[in-house]
Amino acid sequence: MANSGNIGNVYHLASVRPLPDDRDEPSVSDPHQAEVRGDAVPESDGASCDCPDCVTDVLSFPPVALADEARLAAEVPRVPLVADARRLAAWTGTRRVTEERLLPISDARTAVAELGLPVPADRLAAARTADELPLLHLLWSVAVNTGLIRVDGTTAEPGSPGAFGSFDAYDENGDPRELLEFWDGVVMDVLDRADEGLTGSAVVDDHLAEMLATMYSLSDGIAVAALVKGILQSHEVACQARPEEMRRLTATLPGELTEALNLLAYCGLIEGVAEGRPRLTPLGLWAVRQDLLREGHDAPTLDEVAVFADLTAEELVAALLGGEAAPSAVAVWLERRAPADAARELLAVAASGGPGERGAVGTILEELGPEAEAPVREALNQPTVWRYAASWLHVRDLPAPPLSTADGDWITIDTLASLLHMAKGAEEVGGFEALSPDEELLRLVETAPEVGHPDTLAVLDMLAARHPEPRVAKAARKTAMRMRSEAI
Asked: What is the pTM of this model?
């Protein structure tokens, strides 16, 4: 996608919390309104700021309802960008192009005039090459990359008959997949151009993927003022922008963003700009989801997660452990239950299960607020889950029994042991959040036998075989050998 070729640079929705005059914006404290998991830092091509390297995590997005594929496909030819790219292809026909595979500047000026493209006269006169006319260059890139125009050496020719045939022959009884594949390619071409300057705003281009991902998560749209605030906060933190730059951006970004949103509307990705509340179009929602899936993120449809809503807690936990249910299924499951009822069902599974069940239940319980206090407090009497319950209460500043260092170590070992019961869990041990910092893990490895957890030896063997830090792996091997020797 923009910048890095992926959607990994998604900023937290906390950066678009309600403004004083925009109180209807959802807050991230409500997972049923908007939910994006995972930390990521925006990446830059270095042209506009010194952002740190992108840290791409797998993110979980709220389920969405997609329009029918036939209806989506019928809209593709009506997208202004697509219609103009087709007109440019028809206008070009067969003609000579430059060594850079572009129209000569004289032909480019003629194309702008005859096609009626909205290019300012002064920019048209000042351009020395076709790529200095951004709108025409965008249309040319889309037409060439999607096969509407074929460039062979220094000659441009009409694309294959199928490139036009799919538009002209499509009707409600046709197969929509061909047109949607074409649309997917169009959107990839558009977003890839952010590296070279798509919207006319370097800051918007840098954070374009973040902005679209945020819109994807807020199906009802988001106020332009909230988008401005979110981009400014993201840019300041991730790009380490200086105060003078932030003052300049605060003044210029609203205008730049409006122009960028109008361009994205022309490209068929967003709507609602005129009302001041842009949102993804049905085609934009479909295309952004395709990008998310390509990057390995959890971006399900409502139909895909609906099957999990009526599972029992035991069935849901089993599906999570087996890799059959993505994290987004949890939100749908919780929506069907009162928080206290959900917590009580889950804690019963954790109390009767092993580390895998306790780990999965602990993750789900993090989604619940103080409304679930009563059943969690009841779990303080359960020998295998009381530490989790106490920790849950402490995090929410609710009265709870104290947890010693040994109790914390027990939870950590239990959490690590849960990886042994998850699909591909042990294979991903190096990225598991419970493993940092390494110095603390080294201390835990050395004192692990004193914790009294039944899976301590299995956890040590896993760390010895899988942990990427040699010191940790070596310490785990030594402690495991000591435990076996003492047992003999």
From this structure: 0.71
